[in-house]
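Second attempt. The first submission of RDD family membrane protein YckC had a stray character pasted in from the spreadsheet, which I only caught after the job came back as garbage. Lesson logged: always re-copy from the clean sequence file. Corrected sequence (144 aa) follows.
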Amino acid sequence: MPDPTTENTYPGERLGRPATGSGSVARFGRRIVALIIDYTAAGVIATAFFGYDQFALPAEAGLSMFSPLVVFAILQVLFIPTIGGSPGHRIVGLRLVLLGGGWAGLWRPIVRTLLLLVVIPALIWDADQRGLHDKAAGTILIRA
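This time the job returned cleanly.
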């Protein structure tokens, strides 16, 4: 494994990832587009099945105001182990793998998703553009 104390010239260099192309660390733009796709899909599904009303006051909406978030979490936990990423990840050409490569397994997507729902861990990145949610799960989001 490469020396973690060396200076990066590009994200993922310390981790032995290429600078560009397949296997390189996913960049911010693709991540945001994937997140928008996933959350939009979750909102549509939640609306169809739970009657989510985004304009209702919290007292009127009850638990249905959290339905898009729950559906989003289910999509993440279901699709990461089965197709290697969320639907949004796969549409924009990303894949979630273990840091050393390979299948993410079953428990890692759960840990990663729970931390993603908290939001803050996903906003704190290291020099390799891995959020705390990926670091805690031992995963990395790469270009497919």
